[in-house]
Amino acid sequence: MTKVTMTVNGKTVSAMTEGRTLLSSYLREGLGLTGTHIGCDTSQCGACTVHVDGVAVKSCSVFAQDVAGATVTTIEGMANADGSLSVIQQAFQDHHGLQCGYCTPGMVMASAALLASNPSPTEGEVRHYLEGNICRCTGYHNIVKAVLAASGQDVAAVAAE
C-alpha cells in the first residue's frame, strides 16, 4: 500500500492505495466521492470522466498513483462556490440533458472540457466531442442543446435527430 496525495476539488487529500488502484476507485472508495460513476471499466462509456490538471480523462483508465500530485476535479467540484449549479449543470437541468442520470457526471465533465477549449462550439463539434461518452436514455439531442446553451448560444436552431 502506498499513500497517494493529490488536490481534489480544491482540497489536498490522501488515501492509502495499491499500485493497481484505478483513479475511479481511489475517488469513490478511497475518498468517498461517488459522483464519478463506473460504467464499463474499459474506458468506452465515459461515465467516469474527471479532469486531471484541466484535461478530461476517463478515470477508469488511469492509475491513482500516476496522478499523485495532480489537480483533479470531479463532478462534486463543478458546483459554484455558493453550492448552486454551475452554468453547465444548470443547462443540463434546464434542457433535460439527463434522464436516468448515470452518464450525466461524465457528460458534464466532458462538456466542461469542450467549452474550456472551444467556448462556442457548433452542434457538430459538440456531437463529435461527446462521441466518447455513451448515454443509453436521451438520444443525445437534449445533451447537445444543454452544451450549446451553456456556451451562450441559441438552442432553438438545434436540429432534431
What does this structure look like?
The chain has 161 residues and is an alpha+beta fold. The protein has two domains: 2-76, Beta-grasp domain (Ubiquitin-like (UB roll), Roll); 87-150, [2Fe-2S]-binding domain (DNA polymerase, domain 1), CATH 1.10.150. 29% of the residues lie in helices and 16% in strands. It has helices spanning 23-30, 87-94, 104-117, 123-129, 141-150, and strands at residues 2-8, 11-17, 49-52, 55-58, 71-73. β3 and β4 (55-58) form a beta hairpin. The model has no long low-confidence stretch (mean pLDDT 93).
Query: What is the CATH architecture descriptor of the largest domain?
Result: Roll
CA gyration radius, whole angstroms: 16 Å
Which fold does the CATH topology of the largest domain refer to?
Ubiquitin-like (UB roll)
Arithmetic mean pLDDT: 93
